[in-house]
């Protein structure tokens, strides 16, 4: 293992310094919570009876306080394919717990949205804030104070960040995340995108498109592209919150079951009553957060994490921003290419060495912190650089060896790109993120007259009528957290991709989000401050742009600017708040949300975190 890379060391020190007060307050809180944790033997018998009444065969063990009682927070629903396998989990987890004299109770459920289902639809405007609703639901589940540890069942985009934020507010408890793995590969993501582009151009029928989509999304398990859900799994490994290597093992396999079983046994082993106490609030420290950022950059992960990492870190008293991410990006090489940044999917990535290989390379190059607490048998990250397998029925970890596919995974000494997957853009239009790993370097700079839109639907209409057939920067504004909850605008990818393939220089500029599955088209996203002013607020510069203004997006120099003189202009008026699809229920989240760079969260802002 090499010495720590100087940039990683410097940024970690900076994060530690700026988080000093917040982190101290947080650690004091969890120490107090640990000290004040109600001894179950002292809790009122009536309260206990309420808690154990439904426990059936575990009632006796709970009554006698035989072993740790583990609370499961599950985000099961069977519309979300990734979460469908969780249906059978509670029963299994209870059995695994009994093997070691522990008990498992389902503490509560959380909502879980599928961004694939709501993409381009009004339901997507609830998506970012569903993360905070999940954190709050996690808090409600754990508020019963009957648990000695937690198992967190969630995979997809907002669910892992929401579960982690909620769990961190119970940071005196140990926790293990339990993923259930990707579905087998179907129609390749590249072929799926090609049919979408054909359809956008009128060259494929709706029936052909649906067949292609169903060939891709075909069974229970996580979608196979490297989007937000799978980036979540990467981060949980690099933060040490999984049983090592649990991320990408498919559902319904013996290995998956062995990993789930190990998760129960691990969380029971690292509780406050044992001699190896590892509360999640200590596992998630500044170094673990830096590891998550490094992993995101090294693998070209989802841009959504530029919003979620600051939010998750805040819940543990830690402050990070896009400057930290961007500076790290200069030091972290891109060592993985998974669709949308390459052609293989997460199953191929896993076969080629997967997370074990990535972590081994990052540790070897001094880019990741080895000395995080983690939940693995041996403290630290070393176990995460191995891959799990079965020796008979027993779980065993083996060395990963060389990359099994040099098109997909490369050593840190011979990477795909010398720097990581994300750039910060700045200028007179604000601050924005640019996913450089997904965009051909020849397209890192686009300067063209802009067309300004207020909805993604209007972009589709302009595209269909041929109005966008030219070099153009497409600006889609009023898509920030306070305007409409900051939806993903991934449905713009096929039309903009078509324009690009027709030979035009095209870029997108928006205060909204793109999906983890977006790539190819250069995009300045999450522009902050957002265009929307809100009561008593100030409109961001995007609200001043007009059709025809020259806009420059440059990932090389980190620029997002216009040559137009904006100083005398009046901002475009805020759009009216949308109602329907439940959006009116989320008005308070929109009113109170802070900026994307801080996590776009009303909950954290209001809590003073
Ligand atoms: O951030 C993400 O990872 C996406 O929101 C993802 O959850 C969503 O399902 C995509 O919209 C589907 O991607 P495809 O366009 O490849 O089907």
From TrEMBL:
It comes from the Bacteria. InterPro entries: 6-phosphgluc_deHydtase, Dihydro-acid_dehy_C, DiOHA_6PGluconate_deHydtase_CS, ILV_EDD_C, ILV_EDD_N, IlvD/EDD_N. Coiled coil: none annotated. Residues 408-599 form the Dihydroxy-acid/6-phosphogluconate dehydratase C-terminal domain. Pfam families: ILV_EDD_C, ILVD_EDD_N. Keywords: 4Fe-4S, Carbohydrate metabolism, Gluconate utilization, Iron, Iron-sulfur, Lyase, Metal-binding. The keyword Iron-sulfur applies. GO terms for cellular component: cytosol. The keyword ATP-binding does not apply. Its EC number is 4.2.1.12. Residues 68-377 form the Dihydroxy-acid/6-phosphogluconate dehydratase N-terminal domain. It is an enzyme of class 4 (lyase). GO terms for molecular function: 4 iron, 4 sulfur cluster binding; metal ion binding; phosphogluconate dehydratase activity. GO terms for biological process: D-gluconate metabolic process; Entner-Doudoroff pathway through 6-phosphogluconate. Belongs to the IlvD/Edd family. NCBIfam families: edd. This is Phosphogluconate dehydratase. It comes from Aurantiacibacter arachoides. The lineage of its organism: Bacteria, Pseudomonadati, Pseudomonadota, Alphaproteobacteria, Sphingomonadales.
């Amino acid at each position: 293992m090499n010495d720590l890379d100087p940039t990683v060391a410097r940024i970690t020190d900076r994060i530690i310094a700026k988080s000093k007060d917040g982190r101290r307050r947080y650690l004091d809180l969890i120490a107090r919570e640990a000290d004040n944790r109600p001894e179950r033997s002292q809790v009122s018998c009536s309260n206990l009876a309420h808690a154990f009444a439904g426990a059936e065969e575990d009632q006796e063990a709970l009554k006698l306080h035989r072993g740790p009682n583990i609370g499961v927070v599950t985000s099961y629903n069977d519309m979300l394919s990734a979460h469908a396998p969780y249906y059978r989990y509670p029963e299994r987890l209870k059995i695994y717990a009994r093997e070691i004299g522990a008990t498992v109770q389902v503490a509560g459920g959380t909502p879980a949205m599928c961004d694939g289902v709501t993409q381009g639809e009004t339901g997507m405007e609830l998506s970012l804030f569903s993360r905070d609703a999940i954190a709050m639901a996690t808090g409600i589940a754990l508020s019963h104070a009957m648990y000695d540890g937690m198992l967190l069942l969630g995979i997809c985009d907002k669910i892992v960040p929401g579960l982690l934020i909620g769990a961190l507010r119970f940071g005196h408890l140990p926790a293990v995340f339990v993923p259930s793995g990707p579905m087998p590969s179907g129609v390749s993501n590249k072929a799926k995108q090609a049919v979408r582009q054909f359809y956008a151009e009128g060259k494929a029928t709706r029936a052909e498109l649906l067949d292609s989509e169903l060939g891709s999304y075909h069974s229970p398990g996580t979608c196979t592209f490297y989007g937000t859900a799978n980036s979540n799994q990467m981060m949980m490994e690099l933060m040490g919150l999984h049983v090592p290597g649990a991320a990408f093992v498919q559902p319904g396999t013996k290995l998956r079951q062995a990993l789930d079983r190990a998760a129960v046994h691990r969380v029971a082993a690292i509780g406050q009553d044992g001699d190896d106490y590892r509360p999640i609030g200590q596992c998630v420290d500044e170094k673990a957060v830096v590891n998550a950022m490094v992993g995101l950059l090294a693998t070209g992960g989802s841009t959504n994490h530029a919003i979620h990492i600051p939010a998750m870190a805040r819940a543990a008293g830690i402050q990070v921003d896009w400057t930290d991410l961007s500076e790290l990006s200069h030091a972290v090489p891109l060592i993985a290419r998974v669709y949308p940044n390459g052609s293989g999917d997460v199953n191929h990535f896993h076969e080629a060495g997967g997370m074990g290989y990535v972590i081994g390379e990052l540790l070897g190059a001094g880019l990741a912190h080895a000395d995080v607490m983690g939940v693995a048998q041996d403290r630290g990250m070393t176990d995460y650089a191995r891959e799990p397998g079965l020796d008979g029925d027993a779980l065993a970890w083996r060395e990963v060896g060389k990359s099994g596919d040099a098109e997909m995974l490369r050593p840190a000494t011979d990477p795909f790109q010398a720097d990581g997957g994300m750039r910060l853009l700045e200028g007179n239009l604000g601050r924005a993120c640019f996913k450089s790993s997904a965009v051909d370097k020849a397209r890192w700079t686009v300067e063209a007259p802009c067309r300004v839109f207020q909805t993604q639907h209007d972009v589709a209409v302009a595209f269909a009528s041929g109005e966008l057939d030219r070099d153009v920067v497409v600006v889609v504004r009023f898509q920030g957290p306070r305007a409409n909850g900051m939806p993903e605008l991934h449905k713009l990818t096929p039309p903009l991709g078509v324009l690009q393939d027709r030979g035009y220089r095209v870029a997108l500029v928006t205060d909204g989000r793109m999906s983890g599955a977006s790539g190819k088209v250069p995009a300045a996203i999450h522009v902050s401050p957002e265009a929307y002013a809100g009561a008593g607020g100030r409109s961001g510069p995007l609200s001043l742009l007009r059709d025809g203004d020259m806009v420059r997006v440059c990932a090389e120099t980190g620029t997002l600017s216009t040559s137009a003189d904006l100083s005398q202009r009046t901002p475009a008026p805020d759009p009216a708040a949308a109602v329907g699809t439940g959006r009116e229920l989320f008005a308070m989240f929109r009113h109170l949300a802070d900026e994307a760079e801080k996590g776009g969260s009303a909950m954290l802002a209001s809590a003073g975190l």
